[in-house]
Amino acid sequence: MEMYLLFLALIPGILIIIYIFRKDKVESEPLSLIFKLLIFGALSCIPAVFMEGFMGTLMPAGLTEGSVGYAVFTAFLVAALCEEVCKFVLLWLGSWRNSNFNYRFDGIVFGVCVAVGFALLENVLYVLQGGVYVALMRGVMAVPLHAFCGVFMGVHYGAAKRYSVEGKHSKATGSIFLALFAPFVIHGIYDSLAFMGAYGTTFILLAFVLFMYIVAIRVVKRYSREDWHAGFYQQQQATLRVSK
Length: 244
Prior knowledge:
Blueprint: H1 2-23, H2 31-43, H3 45-57, H4 68-95, H5 104-130, H6 132-140, H7 142-165, H8 169-195, H9 202-226, H10 233-243
Helix pairs in contact: 1-5, 1-6, 2-4, 2-5, 3-4, 4-5, 4-8, 5-6, 5-7, 7-8, 7-9
């Protein structure tokens, strides 16, 4: 039974990685790098746990469990902030200086890999405790949520890399901020709605997840289609040749 649950816990993330990998039309990333970033994503769970524990101690005394304020604080400042920061740090450490990071869509591939790595470890722990129902619900909700965050982190992370290569450091800094802020907002909204389920937000949560499916798929398709023209070093080398 545990092997069956393990399979159910892993398959959603694996399918997402396969989808993103196949959308990388210009230059597929080495599988060794994909596995490395998945592992880095799983490892990001460790500091996230400690950060969440610390942030939990900062919760105002007036926020009682079950209240809207408690749900929003926990969603944004405990879960979303800590988890997205940790994922971003491991994403940066695992890919920023990698020579394979030479197209903007690579940022999406790398961002999703780290996000899914985090989601897979988290999902295994939840599913082994909660069973088949938890596996099915998280497979269509929580795991894709992390992937959505990875997509939008990756869009701005790829932009930051391109601006950095072009010497536009202020724009690179702005893109790094967005690479953290966009998934923070998405994650915070999702968790707030999930934590406030008792207030009748379940249907709003389902609508939000459906909306994010549509938007994320459209973003992935767009950047995959435009990636032929979004290489970093080719433009830089051409500029250098002209200047000589």
